[in-house]
Every structure is written in structure tokens, then in C-alpha cells.
């Protein structure tokens, strides 16, 4: 009696991937790149939709507390992926179920919750650590921030690289660590045409191939280059005069504690044969100011006080960034304020001379007006 392939019952009911007597798994059923990517995008949209529904009514609260929104995204993703990728849901998230995929062990069996948790945590190290920020108040905290960024960069690169280029087993970094595979839901073949039939025959693995060792050489080389750049090239650049005019401005803004983070750049524009130069500052508010315009005035006052050549510039731009990140996604809006140094002096009541001297400052002597 010939067996039908694939069995109609499997197609209709999508039963858990447990090989019955007479069936084994083969390499032909390892999930490919595009179905896995589409399944992940569906899962990310589901989690992001829930996060947006929770945070949107309290946008300002979460935008001023980035770790709160990131923790929310992590908790939801942890529950979502660790449970659904385990044997409790037959290894299928909503996205994998829609694309006909599931997470299994090397023998095509659903994985335990513990293994699913390990798989998620490796994935989370690449996705969520990227947005973790610590205020660099001392060397220990700065070192922790550097370590967190390094781990995130390493995991992110290895995860993306293997996901794209590991075509033998299609395992990404979290699959390799947890020893899992992503297979098509109906991944069973008749055993009668294989050598050795019957339920006591040899167990065939989900893949007969191994990851090409050259992938690890590539990953290791790139990581070594990144670490070299981080620990050697960056300090060397900082010792040069390349950012000597901008670093004091950024440090002064951060030390004022009116923002979570600040970035400063020098912008030069060429138009009709003339060149204009401006100082552009982007800041993330921390709740010290209720109104963005008041915050822009406070930031501009610090720039006027700190930059000794500010009256030689053509303008000062301040961009207030409101951003909420969930790890798997984010949404934001920005407000921009731009005036010449003389206009900012009039607006904030701050007088500066070309040598960086200060005739008068606001409020508490720092050039900052607190709410």
C-alpha cells in the first residue's frame, strides 16, 4: 500500500511536528530566508501594536523615560516569543503559524520552555541592548555602557550575518546557541524509501549539514576590527583637535542635567558662492521643561555661554527629539528651532562676546532657566 505524500491529515490539521513511525525529517524542509523574515515582521508588528496602544496615551511620560518603554517592549517580547516558540504552542508564533513554520530541536521535536527562553535571550541581546543607555556619571558606569554596547554590536552583527549568509542550516546566532531549527510545519517524508524502515530505524536529524566554519572566521574578524576601533581608534580621535570645538558644548549641555542625551555637530552650507556655518544641537528631553520651546532656549543659552566663537557663526539650531523605542520598533516626532546667535541672545536675554565672555546669564547662573 503506497503512502500519500504529504499526508492529507497533516495538511488539514497542522499537527505538532512529532514524527510517527515510518517518517523522518530531511534538509528539504528547513525554512528559507524570506518566509522567516516575513514571519518575524508579522510578530514584530503584533508586539509593536500592543506597545503603541499602551504608550500612546502617555507619550510624554514614556518619551522622557526611555528605559520604561524599552522594558515594556522587552517584557511583551519575552512572553510572546518564549512561550509560543516552545512546546506549549508547538513552536509557532502568530507569524510562523501564518507562514507555516515552527521552531524545533535537531530531531524536529518542539523545544522546551527553558530552551525557548535561552533562544530569546540571545536574540534580545542583539535587539534590546542597543537602546540601553546609562548616564555616564563615573568611570564604572561609562565602562558598563561601553560593555553593553559592545555585546549588543557583536550579537547584532552575528545574528544578522548568519541569518543572511548561513545557507546550509539557516540557523542564526540564537538558533546555534539553543541548538534549534526553523522548519516548515509539514516536514515529514515516508520512510519506506529510506534505508532501514520501521519505528526502530535510525533517527534522522533536521539537517545533515553543518555550518560552514568560514562564517565563524568572518564573524571573528569583524568583531576584532570593531573592538580595535572602539578601544584604540576612538581614543586617538578624541585626542586630536577634530572635535575640540564641539566636545565642550556637548559636555556642558549634558552636565546641566536638563536633557537625557545631547549631540552636537558643525554644519556648513554652500550657496551662491557663500558659506554659512551653524552649530546644530539635538537633545532628548528628560522632563525638566514642559514646553519644547523653553528647553530650546535653555540649550541655546548654554551654547552661547560655552562656544567662544559663537558670534562668528551664522546660526544655532536646536532639535528636540521625542522618541519611544520598544526594541523591535519605535515612533517619534521632533521640533526644530533655529535662530542666529544675535536672535538667540535677544530671546534668552543672554549676552556673549566674541571671546566667550558673559555679561549676563539667566536664573541660577548657569544660563539655564528651569521650570
Outline the secondary-structure elements.
Blueprint: H1 8-13, E1 23-24, H2 33-55, H3 59-63, H4 66-84, H5 94-99, E2 101-104, H6 113-127, H7 139-165, H8 173-178, E3 181-184, E4 189-190, H9 213-239, H10 247-255, E5 259-271, E6 274-285, H11 292-306, E7 315-325, E8 330-339, H12 341-348, E9 351-352, E10 358-360
Parallel strand pairs: 6-7
Antiparallel strand pairs: 1-4, 2-3, 5-6, 7-8, 9-10
Helix pairs in contact: 2-4, 4-6, 6-7, 7-9, 10-11, 11-12
Largest sheet: 4 strands, mixed
Helix vs. strand class = alpha+beta
For the record, give the distance between the C-alpha atoms at the N and C termini, rounded to a whole number: 84 Å
Low-pLDDT regions: 1-17, 188-200, 351-371
- Number of domain modules: 2
Shape: elongated
SS element count, helices: 12
Radius of gyration equals 28 Å
Task: Spell the H/E element sequence.
Answer: HEHHHHEHHHEEHHEEHEEHEE
Strand content: 15-25%
Q: How are strands sequenced across the largest beta sheet?
A: 5-6-7-8
Q: Considering DSSP H and I runs of 4 or more, what fraction of the residues is helical? A: 40-55%
In short:
This protein has 371 residues and is α+β, with helices and mostly antiparallel strands. It has helices at 8-13, 33-55, 59-63, 66-84, 94-99, 113-127, 139-165, 173-178, 213-239, 247-255, 292-306, 341-348, and strands at residues 23-24, 101-104, 181-184, 189-190, 259-271, 274-285, 315-325, 330-339, 351-352, 358-360.
Amino acid at each position: 500500500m503506497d503512502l500519500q505524500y504529504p499526508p492529507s491529515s497533516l495538511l488539514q490539521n497542522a499537527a505538532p511536528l512529532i514524527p510517527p513511525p515510518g517518517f523522518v525529517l530531511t534538509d528539504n524542509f528547513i525554512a528559507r530566508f524570506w518566509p522567516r523574515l516575513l514571519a518575524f515582521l508579522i510578530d514584530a508588528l503584533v508586539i509593536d501594536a500592543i506597545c503603541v496602544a499602551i504608550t500612546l496615551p502617555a507619550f510624554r511620560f514614556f518619551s522622557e523615560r526611555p528605559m520604561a518603554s524599552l522594558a515594556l517592549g522587552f517584557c511583551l517580547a519575552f512572553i510572546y516569543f518564549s512561550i509560543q516558540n516552545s512546546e506549549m504552542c508547538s513552536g509557532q508564533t502568530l507569524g510562523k503559524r501564518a507562514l507555516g513554520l515552527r521552531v524545533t530541536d535537531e530531531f524536529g521535536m518542539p523545544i522546551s520552555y527553558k530552551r525557548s527562553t535561552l533562544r530569546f535571550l540571545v536574540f534580545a541581546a542583539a535587539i534590546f541592548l542597543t537602546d540601553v543607555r546609562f548616564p555616564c556619571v563615573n568611570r564604572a558606569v561609562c565602562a558598563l555602557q561601553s560593555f553593553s554596547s559592545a555585546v549588543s554590536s557583536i550579537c547584532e552583527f552575528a545574528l544578522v550575518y548568519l541569518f543572511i549568509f548561513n545557507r546550509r542550516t539557516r540557523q542564526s546566532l540564537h538558533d546555534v546557541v539553543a541548538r534549534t531549527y526553523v522548519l516548515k510545519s509539514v516536514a515529514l517524508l515516508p520512510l519506506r524509501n529510506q534505508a532501514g524502515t520501521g519505528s526502530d530505524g535510525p533517527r534522522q536529524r533536521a539537517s545533515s549539514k553543518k555550518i560552514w566554519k568560514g562564517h565563524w572566521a568572518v564573524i571573528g574578524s569583524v568583531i576584532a576590527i570593531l573592538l580595535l576601533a572602539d578601544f584604540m581608534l576612538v581614543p586617538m580621535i578624541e585626542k586630536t583637535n577634530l572635535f575640540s570645538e564641539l566636545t565642550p558644548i556637548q559636555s556642558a549641555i549634558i552636565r546641566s542635567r536638563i536633557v537625557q542625551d545631547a549631540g552636537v555637530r558643525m554644519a556648513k552650507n554652500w550657496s551662491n558662492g557663500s558659506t554659512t556655518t551653524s552649530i546644530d544641537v539635538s537633545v532628548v528631553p528628560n522632563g525638566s521643561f514642559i514646553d519644547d520651546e523653553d528647553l530650546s532656549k535653555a540649550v541655546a543659552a548654554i551654547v552661547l555661554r560655552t562656544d567662544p566663537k559663537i558670534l562668528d557663526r551664522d546660526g544655532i539650531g536646536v532639535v528636540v527629539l521625542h522618541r519611544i523605542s520598544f526594541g523591535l520598533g519605535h515612533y517619534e516626532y521632533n521640533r526644530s528651532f533655529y535662530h542666529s546667535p544675535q536672535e538667540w541672545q535677544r530671546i534668552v536675554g543672554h549676552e556673549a562676546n566674541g571671546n566667550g565672555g558673559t555679561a549676563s546669564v539667566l536664573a541660577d547662573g548657569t544660563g539655564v532657566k528651569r521650570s
